[in-house]
Amino acid sequence: MARRRQIYEGKAKILFEGPEPGTVVQYFKDDATAFNNQKKGTITGKGVINNRISEYLMIKLGAIGVPTHFVRRLNMREQLVREVEIIPVEVVVRNVVAGSMAKRFGMEEGTELPRSIVEFCYKSDDLDDPLITEEHITAFGWATPQELDEIVATTLRINDFLCGLFLGVGLKLIDFKLEYGRLWENEQLRIVLADEISPDSCRLWDVKTNEKLDKDRFRRDLGGVEEAYQEVARRLGILPESGPRDMPGPDTMQ
């Protein structure tokens, strides 16, 4: 397997130098973390499934005109993406009360919100990804007011689309996290959707039973984590025919 220069390793993915200028290879790991890396483990086959799910959703979003960094899937665990300047802001959309929102406001999980709520967090593991406001984002220069308006509008559009898509396969999109980046294209700076969309970054509950089919099964020691990820992929019609299997990462060059 070709040796590649590793650019970055995060909690769930490794980024390698791409085969052509302006591209990056995104490798999906089976590593799982929770509570800002305080809990660590492995979800067998997670990288394979998240690669397929994120590919599927990025292609679907691209088809309705949402600009993304996704180019194509390379193999079971890798996809080719365009290199972008990541904006250090996590955009969280909440449709139903769950997780940290339930804890912050003393609300019961599963409480329907009167409308979708968009929250922002500063992307920093060292600081525990603190909640921030639009004023922080623009004052600290992480994004301009125009970029932020575009990000919010795109996020709400993505939420509407994904809610309908998941509902069609019997899943309720409780909340999810997005990241965006800047990309120069034909001498024009564009804001594009980056990172991934998968059960690692979404809360997905069964519509009828409210069974959790996402990383909360790992966070809360509910068991059946691998099966939950597989079930999401199965409902979307993209579970690999042979089922998820292990695949070693590429040799790296430091």
Commentary on this structure:
The protein contains six helices and 15 strands. With 254 residues, the protein is an alpha+beta fold. The protein has two domains: 4-84 and 224-242, Phosphorylase Kinase, domain 1 (2-Layer Sandwich); 85-206, ATP-grasp fold, B domain (D-amino Acid Aminotransferase, Chain A, domain 1), CATH 3.30.470. The strands form three sheets. Strands 8, 9, 10, 11, 12, 13 and 14 form a seven-stranded antiparallel sheet that branches. It has a six-stranded mixed sheet with strand order 6-7-3-2-1-15. The longest helix is centred in the middle third of the chain and has 23 residues, at 145-167. The two termini are 16 Å apart. The relative contact order is 0.20. The model is unreliable at 246-254 (pLDDT under 50).
Shape: globular
Number of strands: 15
CATH class annotation of the largest domain:
Alpha Beta
The main β sheet shows up as:
7 strands, antiparallel
Keyphrases for this structure?
254 residues, alpha+beta, Phosphorylase Kinase, domain 1, D-amino Acid Aminotransferase, Chain A, domain 1, 2 domains, seven-stranded antiparallel sheet, six-stranded mixed sheet, 6 helices, 15 strands, 34% strand, globular, disordered C terminus
Give the SSE layout.
Layout: E1 4-9, E2 13-17, E3 23-28, E4 31-34, E5 39-42, H1 46-63, E6 70-73, E7 78-82, E8 85-86, E9 89-96, H2 99-105, E10 112-122, E11 131-132, H3 134-139, H4 145-167, E12 171-185, E13 188-194, E14 202-206, H5 216-219, H6 225-236, E15 252-253
Helix pairs in contact: 1-6
